[in-house]
């Protein structure tokens, strides 16, 4: 079994209990305007360019078999429409300015990487977290890795948007120790406008997971002028409170650090006019949520 | 912190280090008046002359008395080891950092008295006279340094014997040993007699030194108007009449007894790492418990006394070197380091009430001296580790953290008894030793990358064009990587041989000319054997050579293997040409070496496997070879700041490092080469066989956000426990300041590994835009503790 991942981050300390390794799976059905991992959205490989590292040696230009690199006034510009993501330019880019985001791995290969930090999982009651993208988007691969982790006694966390068929949710839940479940907007229309999909499935899947006994932490990105209004907070707090068995809500204040990545992908950042929320605003939101649900924390 | 301690601390911090001529003058008088006496007795008489005539200094408000110089930070010199020139004094007086004030009287005394008197009579001159030309060539080339050319062997730590024995008890043991001498059967009986006589003189001298303090305290008490201080002074007089002649009975007496002994050791000579009390928390526990039980002590008063002792350490800057250049700054720190926690001799958990008291003292005092560490055993509770980590998080570099179980294993592997091993710990930077029973001498740093550089140049040092190594053949002639590695191994053996030959001579110079009868009283089994510490009298005698730059060497070899022998992207002549020009027209090739090669510190088995081979090579060249004191040589891997000096004499290297820049330090990865986070670094370092060393040093840096809150402390604790599970010896955490981030903005090249984290997303700091970097700097400043 193989899957496509775009990163593995060791010593992940905000993605579930203890010290963890977070595996980022590529591909996501949502298109949240604030997404800080824009390279996670497309299921296919993409070329990632760190312009500041480029020494303008032209080696990529010379080697590209698809003529997808053009010279423009001393700079080298990648024509993404032509680029086949073959990776030949990476070999000759000694400055490491070019990267292909997305690589195929087998379950076995991925397990080897996951196993590397086992000593730290053991010490900290940590484990592995699958994030993305949307990990359920590659659910067959995810399942095979989850099952192997269970066999080997490694704690698993799935960080999900919940946008998936109920059958997939059920099968993954059987092999998952903890869900980090994103809730963004309670209003269906607004949800569709900001993420590209309706929230109906997301809400019903959350209910389903909790009712079937899965351990769930709800995560809410707090984005000024998108979802930080009192009405949304109240609706979200009430919904979670009514589910009763959700462990906690993590409020994740919006930050603009993903902006760099849009540039590296040659994309425009869609949410340019939003500023990170002030501390007061974050605390206000937490207090509002706490009116309905006790266990609310800032950060993961 | 009490008002008294606050004042004493403030005085200590604001005292200006200066050169005192007092000791030099007394040592000169003793040298000039020495008659026909043996070396140990001559040294003991000099020791006595100093202690009986030096100024007695009692500072206002202090509870623990005794200064090495006539006043706090008035720093003595040791002309019998090496005598400062007038130029040295000028540099010390004027250099920007770590300066020592030198007044006109001092200059005059040096010019008219000390320099002529000691010319041709110092240990340093003797050493350089005895070293071979090839040793000198290697020394000048920066292949190795020599520890004993300026300071005496020391590198040792006290156990609990002074808390059970006074100097009068040691006198009795010395007399017993004298009584057992067999002049018929033992040809060394006379030599032993001289050594024992010298020990007796030294023990008496320390008692007299304490009595002189008692007299001064009596006089002060008589003049004192304040009733409570008057009572304090009277109590202190009583203590100084009691210790160190007799064993201490109280917490206060125990601390004062230690301090007199400490002053004795650092006055007798200028030994490496000064001296330190070792397992202070365990030694003090019985006194603490008794004091609490009978009401004579409270946790607060115990803390105040400890803090008074801390001030004493800080009042004694490391004596400055000779032959320095204006650029060298060195440090005021004398490397005395307090061990806390660990195991008791019976193998049980050694953490106690005093351990936590000592940690509180470290936290409150925030002094560079004494340095501090914790000995962390798997048997110690997490609360102990977390207490220490809460101090670590404040970001001033203390305490460092050692794996007590590994320290014990290292000592057992060297053949120590299990009790002696558990009583051991670490001193200096990271050096393992059996406290109170071992002479574990660091003999010098060894520049491993320089050996590779010379291997690539057929034995020639490219910096000077001199051939100082073996002719192992031109690098172009190596058909495969193994041939290159074999040449590297032969060069290494060659240079280690040169270093060791020098060591053997230097060791005898100290044994024959510069014995230390006072220190010998304190280390088993010098009294029983009638043998000096410097001559092999200790129960265990280990010598070390400290390897520097294992990360740089590993990455250089990995790059050569990858690009020259595997991918054949370049030839040896190409590589050598680039290195010779310091990559002047070859930045692209440098980037290839830098970015497209396996690097130690990333949990990459290929690179880490090479690290193990470099380790084995160095280990096999050194380990187990005999010294002249009945012990053997071992390795350890620590740099202090020598990776900077060694870097400054080493040209460009195949890992992409530019010429004259620092080498990797300790066993840390090359600066910026580790790109997979802290667990990967710890995994890589954990692949080293630490048990075959006498200490390794690993530095890790974090931004404050990683260490935030209780969760941050938990994360650090888990990293430490994880690393120690893999057998790591030591780890030290540095918290990256906003200042460092600004530095990274200016010099991204040196900070490529710096990861900054924000919720849910992290990236290399140097890849971020200036705006974002500024935002993170602002946040770091905000969250600084």
Largest Cβ-defined interface: A-B, 37 and 37 residues
Largest sheet of chain A: 9 strands, mixed
Instruction: Report the total helices of chain A.
Output: 11
The largest sheet of chain B has its strands arranged as 3-4-5-15-14
Oligomer: heterodimer
H and E order of chain A: EEEHEEHEEHHEHEHEHHEHEHHE
Indicate the low-confidence ranges of chain B by residue numbers. none
How much is the radius of gyration of chain A in Å? 20 Å
Strand content of chain B: 5-15%
State Rg of chain B.
27 Å
Secondary structure: number of strands of chain B: 17
Q: What can you tell me about this protein's structure?
A:
The complex is a heterodimer of chains A (300) and B (785). With 300 residues, chain A is α/β, with parallel strands linked by helices. In chain A, 33% of the residues lie in helices and 23% in strands. Chain A contains 11 helices and 13 strands. In chain A, the strands form 3 sheets. In chain A, strands 7-1-2-8-9-10-11-12-13 form a 9-stranded mixed beta sheet. Chain A has a two-stranded antiparallel sheet with strand order 3-6. Chain A has a two-stranded antiparallel sheet with strand order 4-5. In chain A, helix 3 (107-115) packs across helix 5 (139-151), helix 6 runs parallel beside helix 8 and helix 9 crosses helix 11. In chain A, 47% of the residues are buried. The model of chain A has no long low-confidence stretch (mean pLDDT 95). Chain B is an alpha/beta fold. Helices cover 51% and strands 10% of the residues of chain B. Chain B is built from 31 helices and 17 strands. In chain B, the strands form 6 sheets. In chain B, strands 3-4-5-15-14 form a 5-stranded mixed beta sheet. In chain B, helix 29 (709-725) links the parallel strand 14 (699-702) and strand 15 (730-735). The longest helix of chain B is centred in the first third of the chain and has 35 residues, at 189-223. Chain B is globular and about 80 Å long. At the A-B interface, strand 1 and helix 4 of A face helix 25, helix 28, helix 29 and strand 17 of B.
């Amino acid at each position: 079994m193989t899957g496509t991942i775009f990163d593995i981050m060791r010593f992940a300390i905000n993605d579930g209990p203890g010290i963890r390794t977070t595996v980022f799976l590529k591909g996501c059905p949502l298109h949240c305007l604030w997404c800080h991992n824009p390279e996670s959205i497309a299921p296919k490989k993409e070329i990632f360019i760190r312009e500041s590292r480029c020494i303008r040696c032209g080696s990529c230009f010379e080697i590209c078999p698809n003529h997808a690199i053009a010279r423009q006034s001393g700079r080298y510009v990648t024509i993404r429409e032509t680029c086949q993501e073959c990776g030949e330019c990476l070999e000759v880019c000694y400055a490491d300015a070019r990267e292909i985001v997305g690589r195929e791995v087998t379950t076995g290969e991925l397990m080897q990487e996951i196993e590397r930090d086992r000593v730290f999982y053991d010490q900290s009651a940590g484990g592995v977290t699958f994030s993305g993208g949307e990990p359920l988007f590659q659910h067959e691969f995810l399942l095979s890795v989850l099952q192997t982790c269970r066999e080997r006694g490694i704690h698993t966390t799935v960080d999900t948007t919940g946008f998936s068929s109920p059958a997939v949710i059920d099968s993954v839940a059987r092999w998952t120790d903890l869900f980090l479940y994103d809730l963004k907007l309670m209003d269906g229309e607004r949800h569709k406008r900001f993420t590209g999909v309706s929230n109906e499935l997301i809400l019903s899947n959350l209910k389903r997971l909790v009712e079937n006994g899965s351990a769930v932490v709800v995560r809410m990105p707090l984005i000024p002028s998108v979802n930080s209004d009192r009405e949304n907070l109240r609706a979200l707090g009430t919904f979670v409170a009514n589910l009763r068995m959700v462990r906690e809500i993590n409020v994740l204040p919006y930050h603009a650090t993903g902006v760099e990545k849009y540039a590296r992908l040659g994309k425009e950042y869609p949410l340019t006019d939003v500023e990170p929320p002030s501390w007061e605003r974050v605390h206000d939101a937490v207090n509002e949520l706490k009116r309905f649900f006790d266990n609310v924390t800032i950060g993961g | 912190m009490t008002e008294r301690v606050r004042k004493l601390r403030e005085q200590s911090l604001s005292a200006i280090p200066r050169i005192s001529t007092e000791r030099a003058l007394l040592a000169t008088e003793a040298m000039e008046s020495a008659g026909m006496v043996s070396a140990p007795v001559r040294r003991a008489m000099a020791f006595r002359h100093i202690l009986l005539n030096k100024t007695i200094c009692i500072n206002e408000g202090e509870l623990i008395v005794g200064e090495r110089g006539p006043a706090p930070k008035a720093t003595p010199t040791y002309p019998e080891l090496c005598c400062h020139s007038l130029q040295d004094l000028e540099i010390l007086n004027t250099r920007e950092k770590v300066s020592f004030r030198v007044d006109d009287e001092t200059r005059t005394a040096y010019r008219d008295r000390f320099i002529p008197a000691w010319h041709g009579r110092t240990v340093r001159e003797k050493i350089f006279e005895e070293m071979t030309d090839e040793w000198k060539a290697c020394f000048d080339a920066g292949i190795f340094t020599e520890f004993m050319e300026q300071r005496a062997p020391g590198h040792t730590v006290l156990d609990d014997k002074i808390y059970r024995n006074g100097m009068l008890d040691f006198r009795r043991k010395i007399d017993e040993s004298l009584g057992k001498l067999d002049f018929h059967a033992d040809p060394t009986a006379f030599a032993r007699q001289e050594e024992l006589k010298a020990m007796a003189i030294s023990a008496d001298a320390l008692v007299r030194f304490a009595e002189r303090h008692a007299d001064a305290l009596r006089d002060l008490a008589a003049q004192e108007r304040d009733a409570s201080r008057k009572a304090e002074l009277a109590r202190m007089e009583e203590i100084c009449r009691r210790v160190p002649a007799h064993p201490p009975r109280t917490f206060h007496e125990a601390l004062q007894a230690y301090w007199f002994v400490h002053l004795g050791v650092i006055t007798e000579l200028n030994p490496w790492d000064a001296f330190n009390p070792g397992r202070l928390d365990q030694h003090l526990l019985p006194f603490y418990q008794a004091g609490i039980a009978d009401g004579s002590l409270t946790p607060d008063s115990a803390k105040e006394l400890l803090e008074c002792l801390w001030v004493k350490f800080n009042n004694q800057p490391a004596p400055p070197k000779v032959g320095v250049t204006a650029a060298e700054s060195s440090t005021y720190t004398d490397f005395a380091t307090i061990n806390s926690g660990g195991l008791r001799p019976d193998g049980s958990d050694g953490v106690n009430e005093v351990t936590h008291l000592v940690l509180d003292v470290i936290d409150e005092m925030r002094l560079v001296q004494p340095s501090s560490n914790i000995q962390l055993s798997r048997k110690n509770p997490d609360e102990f580790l977390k207490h220490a980590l809460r101090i670590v998080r404040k970001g001033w570099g203390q305490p460092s953290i050692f794996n007590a179980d590994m320290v014990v294993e290292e000592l057992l592997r060297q053949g120590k008894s299990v009790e002696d091993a558990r009583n051991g710990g670490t001193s200096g930077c990271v050096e393992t030793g059996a406290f109170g029973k071992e002479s574990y001498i660091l003999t010098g740093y060894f520049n491993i990358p320089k050996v590779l550089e010379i291997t690539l140049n057929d034995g020639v040092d490219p910096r000077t064009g001199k051939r100082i190594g073996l002719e192992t053949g031109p690098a172009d002639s190596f058909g495969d990587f193994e041939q290159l590695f074999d040449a590297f191994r032969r060069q290494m053996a060659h240079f280690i041989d040169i270093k060791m030959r020098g060591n053997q001579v230097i060791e005898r110079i100290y044994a024959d000319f510069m014995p230390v009868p006072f220190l010998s009283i304190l280390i088993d089994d010098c009294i029983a054997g009638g043998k000096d510490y410097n001559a092999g009298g200790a129960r265990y005698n280990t010598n070390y050579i400290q390897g520097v730059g294992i990360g740089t060497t590993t990455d250089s070899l990995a790059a050569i293997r990858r690009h020259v022998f595997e991918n054949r992207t370049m030839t040896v002549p190409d590589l050598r040409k680039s290195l010779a020009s310091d990559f002047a027209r070859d930045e692209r090739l440098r980037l290839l070496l830098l970015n497209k090669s396996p690097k130690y510190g990333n949990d990459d088995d290929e690179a880490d496997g090479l690290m193990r081979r470099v380790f084995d090579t160095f280990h096999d060249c050194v380990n187990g070879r005999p010294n002249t004191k009945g012990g053997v040589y071992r390795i350890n891997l620590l740099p202090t700041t020598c990776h900077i000096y060694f870097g400054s004499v080493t040209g460009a290297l195949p890992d992409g490092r530019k010429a004259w820049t620092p080498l990797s330090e300790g066993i840390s990865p090359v600066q910026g080469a580790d790109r997979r986070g802290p667990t990967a670094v710890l995994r890589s370092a954990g692949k080293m066989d630490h048990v075959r060393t006498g200490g390794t040093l690993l530095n890790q840096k974090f931004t404050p956000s990683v260490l935030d809150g209780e969760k941050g402390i938990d994360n650090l604790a888990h990293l430490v426990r994880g690393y120690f599970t893999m057998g790591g010896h030591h780890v030290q955490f540095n918290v990256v300041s906003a200042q460092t981030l600004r530095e990274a903005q200016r010099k991204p090249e040196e900070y490529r590994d710096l990861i900054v984290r924000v919720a849910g997303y992290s990236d290399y700091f140097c890849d971020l835009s200036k705006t974002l970097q500024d935002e993170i700097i602002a946040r770091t400043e905000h969250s600084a503790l």
